[in-house]
UniProtKB/TrEMBL annotation:
This is FAD-dependent monooxygenase. PANTHER family: BINDING MONOOXYGENASE, PUTATIVE (JCVI)-RELATED (PTHR43004:SF19), TRK SYSTEM POTASSIUM UPTAKE PROTEIN (PTHR43004). Residues 8-345 form the FAD-binding domain. Its cofactor is FAD. Keywords: FAD, Flavoprotein, Monooxygenase, Oxidoreductase. The keyword Flavoprotein applies. GO terms for molecular function: FAD binding; oxidoreductase activity, acting on paired donors, with incorporation or reduction of molecular oxygen, NAD(P)H as one donor, and incorporation of one atom of oxygen. It comes from Flavimaribacter sediminis. It comes from the Bacteria.
Length: 510
């Protein structure tokens, strides 16, 4: 079947952060993508943060500043240089080698709004009030069944389908992907109150022998108070507490109810943990919360969902449009499932401490907070891990400190500021690090941009390197100790299909 015989190249089920990012990447690669979303409008805001790696991802597509502008519009001062680990707040993100050495406080609902606008601008097609009810796969693709807002049934035929439909994922259930894990045993509560933040800093967390607490602004006039109440945390409540009970929890744990008289919303969330055994079945893929459920320790859940969606989106887009070989899609599960397991372990390490309030546990937490976490190497490692900056994928070429990691944000020659900015259209990049004039060279493939540094690159992780081959997501796929002339066109196998006769070695124009 040729592409035009399908209604879309890719149907993405869900238009939460994962669905929007995945669709954006695929549309950028030239794919025809339809998002089917059962909601009729915005939903309850869960995530309240944007982390450094996610901001870098958005920067690499030219949209980070838009999100930052929106965050500043909503909150005035949304930047927190400090982060939480295990409910403790000594992490200092300024240690990171990134243009965004901080956590931005931004309600998920606003992040989704900006991402939705960006997707619409490049030709995305998000259909609200379309609930997916079934899908079938055959040799040529998938048929996705839905019911629209008027109760009318329909179906779309596509080459690929992506389940970005959250923790109850219909796609995962229909595919029969195993989802082992356990239900919540302990519960935390959010009280979103119509009150200005009573602290002089955007976040503030503490623990004592009766629980844990934190507060941060959601937007002007609306503050989120989070509480783990040792007395009630394992009651197994199916629904959130009412206003009286929630305020009582605040008085018990925070020591005050802050004079709250008007509550916008009370929600609860627990330490339920699940993880899908597979991320792919045939033409169908799973991303985001359809793949995992966990306690939102450190506020990293959406960050990792977005990184999964980013990883899948460009690959699907390039394969669906015939630019890359289908085998590229195998690397999605190979690369992201281990990262998801690593992230779930990071969550477990934190909940092991955060939900314990006996004398021994509090002594250990105090030791972590005051002695261990502030150690510079520990601090940097945790900030990198929580941000997703330590994700390292398979790579080839000479061994180096950056192999497989995302390229550090070194300055580059020409119109762009840093190496993070070289792939705004989602292209592969060959980056010379010797200071050679790349404007006089010819790329080995139309899908590969050439770039260079201003003089030899000066970064400890790049010592001994002459050039790097960057994937569209900014990860280093190949390294050489020599300049661009050393690029081996065989390297393209697995990444890009040959295009006409243009696949040649890097050539110097006369
Ligand atoms: C209390 C709490 C606080 C959190 N705080 C943070 C934080 O500070 N930072 C952070 O990074 N993360 C945080 N998270 C996690 C974050 O909210 C999730 O990781 C994120 O929402 C996952 O995005 P998603 O797109 O994968 O799924 P979702 O946001 O759940 O989106 C799935 C979408 O699919 C749609 N859908 C479902 N079924 C169908 C269907 N059959 N047909 C069509 N559409 C369908 C849904 O309507 C929904 O819009 C928090 C989570 C909780 C619970």
């Amino acid at each position: 079947m040729n592409r035009q015989q399908y209604d879309a190249d890719i149907v993405v089920v869900g238009a939460g952060p994962s669905g929007l990012v995945c669709a954006y990447e695929a549309v950028l690669a030239g794919a025809r993508v339809v998002n089917l979303e059962k909601r009729s409008g915005p939903t309850w805001s869960r995530a309240g943060t944007l982390y450094p790696r996610v901001l870098e991802i958005f920067r690499s597509r030219g949209v980070a500043q838009r999100l930052l502008d929106r965050a500043f519009e909503i909150q005035g001062d949304p930047i927190s240089r400090f982060g939480v680990w295990g409910g403790m707040q000594p992490l200092n993100y300024t240690a990171l080698d990134t243009p965004y050495p901080y956590v931005v406080m931004m309600p998920q609902i606003e992040t989704e709004k900006v991402l939705g606008e960006c997707l619409a601008e490049i030709g995305g097609d998000v259909r609200l009030q379309h609930e997916v009810t079934g899908l079938t796969q055959d040799a040529d693709g998938v048929t996705v069944d839905f019911i629209d807002g008027d109760g009318v049934s329909g179906s779309l035929r596509a080459r690929y389908v992506v389940g970005a439909d959250g923790r109850q994922s219909s796609v995962r259930n229909i595919l029969g992907v195993a989802f082992p894990g356990h239900e919540a045993q302990r519960i935390a509560v959010n009280v979103d109150a119509n009150i200005e933040l009573p602290f002089d800093h955007p976040t503030n967390s503490f623990f004592n022998d009766i629980g844990w607490g934190m507060a941060y602004p959601l937007r002007k006039g609306l503050t989120r108070f989070v509480v783990i109440d040792k007395k009630t945390m394992d009651d197994g409540r199916p629904t959130p507490p009412d206003a009286d009970a929630a305020l009582e929890m605040l008085r018990r744990v925070h020591g005050t109810d802050y004079g709250i008289t008007s509550i916008h919303q009370i929600t609860q969330f627990g330490d339920a943990t699940y993880c899908a055994e597979r991320l792919r079945v045939g033409w169908a893929f799973l991303v985001g919360e359809s793949v995992r459920v966990h306690y939102p320790a450190s506020g990293i859940g959406m960050q990792f969902c977005i990184q999964d969606a980013f990883n899948l989106g460009w690959k699907l887009g390039k394969v669906a449009t015939g630019q890359s070989p289908a085998a590229l899609l195998d690397s999605f599960e190979e690369e992201r499932l281990p990262e998801i397991h690593r992230m779930l372990d990071m969550i477990r390490q934190q909940t092991a401490l955060q939900f314990r309030f006996d004398e021994e546990a509090n002594a250990l937490k105090t030791y972590f907070r005051d002695k261990l976490l502030p150690l510079p190497d520990v601090n940097r490692m945790l900030c990198e891990d929580l941000s997703g900056l330590s994700a390292r994928y398979a790579s080839s070429g000479v061994e180096s400190a950056v192999s497989g990691l995302r390229m550090p944000p070194i300055p580059v020659a020409g119109e762009y500021e840093t190496a993070l900015d070289l792939s705004t259209q989602g292209q592969f990049v060959l980056l010379d690090l010797t200071g050679a004039d790349v404007s006089r060279m010819t790329s080995p493939h139309p899908q590969i941009a050439l770039a260079g540094t201003i003089g030899p690159a000066d970064h400890p992780a790049l010592a001994g390197l002459g050039c790097v081959f960057l994937r569209p997501d900014g990860h280093v796929a190949w390294t050489s100790s020599e300049g661009l002339g050393s690029f081996d066109v065989e390297m393209l196998d697995g990444w890009l299909l040959p295009e006409d006769a243009s696949r040649t070695a890097v050539a110097r124009r006369s």
